[in-house]
Write a structure and sequence with these properties.
With about 300 residues, the protein is of the alpha+beta class. The protein has three domains: about 70 residues, Uridine Diphospho-n-acetylenolpyruvylglucosamine Reductase, domain 2 (2-Layer Sandwich), CATH 3.30.43.10; about 130 residues, Uridine Diphospho-n-acetylenolpyruvylglucosamine Reductase, domain 3, CATH 3.30.465.10; about 60 residues, UDP-N-acetylenolpyruvoylglucosamine reductase, C-terminal domain (Uridine Diphospho-n-acetylenolpyruvylglucosamine Reductase, domain 1, Alpha-Beta Complex), CATH 3.90.78.10. Helices cover about 25% and strands about 25% of the residues. It contains six helices and 18 strands. The strands form six sheets. A five-stranded antiparallel β-sheet has the order 6-7-13-11-12. Strands 1-2-5-3 form a four-stranded mixed β-sheet, covered by helices on one side. It has a three-stranded antiparallel β-sheet with strand order 15-16-17. A hairpin with a 6-residue loop joins strand 9 and strand 10. The longest helix is centred in the C-terminal third of the chain and has 19 residues. It is globular and about 50 Å long. The structure holds flavin-adenine dinucleotide. The site of flavin-adenine dinucleotide has 32 residues, from strand 3, helix 3, strand 9 and strand 13.
Length: about 300
């Protein structure tokens, strides 16, 4: 038996994701601090119940049949400053950290303005965005100093950033069952006006190029980028930009965003992904790989 306070059963997952898609979880809990997070994971492991740590649900597609196991919605969101270091629990949203660090005149998080993410999700995928001059990619690893993890033996360990083996859209969290509990970010002092200007520039860039997630629920880009070619451009080349499959549509603004036009299902997303992959392969020879994770039963 799972000894977890406020445990729910049969909770529908759709509202907890940016896609607004996903069936029921057998077990579901919202954790509000690191002790609750660690307890929920250890309880699931002790009872041999599969578990999934959910941040803002911005990089995953839950299946229409939901999740057989425990979904742990991570809202452990305490953080504090020590000089120019920020120590944050893994459920804090990057949006909250952007506002608070900007207030303190500390630079580092402003590059990620407008991206839905928790600290844990950002580390899982090595969150990234274009540099201010748009000539390179800035990664979250550049400001990460160290982190506290729960390892597979239920021990809490402290690791440096090298431990994560960060790469583009990759960290060791993809392959090993570590849970991020807390992270230390090393920031730089900067005039507040400069930080606020960068936030504004990045939000404007996003509004211009990408459909808003509030209006068009999605998971951001579905396919991995192909250097020098662009997944979105390939979708456009084969005539599928703006194409609809059930309740899912390739965005007319940014073809690599497949958004939920209302009543969209995971089955619709998968059908559109398959169609795009097949047509792009047949007509251009390129193989498009997905960058989002598919979680649960489909
Ligand atoms: C509109 C839109 C735009 C986007 N733009 C960008 C962009 O510009 N750049 C970019 O990099 N991404 C982008 N994304 C993708 C997404 O925002 C990122 O991947 C983000 O980091 C996901 O964080 P999350 O908290 O939502 O993670 P979730 O989607 O909830 O989870 C993702 C993975 O992280 C794991 N995880 C979460 N917390 C922990 C933890 N504490 N310990 C261990 N594992 C954990 C989960 O189990 C899961 O496997 C975009 C998404 C959307 C919807």
């Amino acid at each position: 038996m799972l000894s977890i306070p406020n445990l729910k059963t049969g909770e529908i997952l759709a509202p907890y994701t940016t896609y607004k898609i996903g069936g029921p979880a057998d077990y579901f809990v919202v954790v509000k601090n690191q002790e609750e997070l660690v307890n929920a994971v250890i309880e699931a492991r002790k009872n041999n119940i599969p578990y999934f740590i959910l941040g803002t649900g911005a990089n995953i597609l839950f299946g229409d049949k939901g999740f057989r196991g425990l979904v742990i919605k991570n809202e452990a969101d305490n953080f504090r400053f020590e000089n120019t270091d920020l120590i944050a629990e893994s459920g804090v949203t990057i949006a909250d950290l952007i506002m608070e660090t900007a207030r303190q005149g500390l630079s580092g998080f402003e590059h990620f303005a407008g991206i839905p993410s928790t600290v844990g999700g950002a580390m899982w995928q090595n969150l990234h965005f274009l540099s201010p001059d748009r000539t390179r990619t800035v990664f979250i690893e550049e400001i990460l100093h160290s982190a506290k993890l729960l390892n597979e033996d239920n021990e809490i360990i402290t690791v440096s950033k090298d431990f994560f083996k960060f790469d583009y859209d990759y960290s060791i969290l993809h392959d090993q069952k570590f849970v991020v509990i807390e992270a230390v970010f090393r920031l730089e002092q900067k005039p507040q006006e400069e930080i606020l200007k960068q936030i504004k520039d990045n939000l404007e860039w996003r509004n211009e190029k990408q459909p808003s997630v509030e209006q068009y629920p999605s998971c951001g880009s579905v396919f991995k980028k192909i250097e020098g070619v662009g997944a979105g451009r390939l979708i456009e080349r084969v005539g599928l930009k703006g194409y609809k499959m059930g309740g899912i549509q390739s965005s007319p603004q940014h073809a690599n965003f497949l958004f939920n036009i209302g009543e969209g299902t995971a089955a619709d997303v998968i059908a559109l992904i398959k169609l795009i992959q097949e047509k792009v392969k047949k007509e251009t020879g390129y193989e498009l790989e997905t960058e989002i994770s598919f979680v649960g039963d489909f």
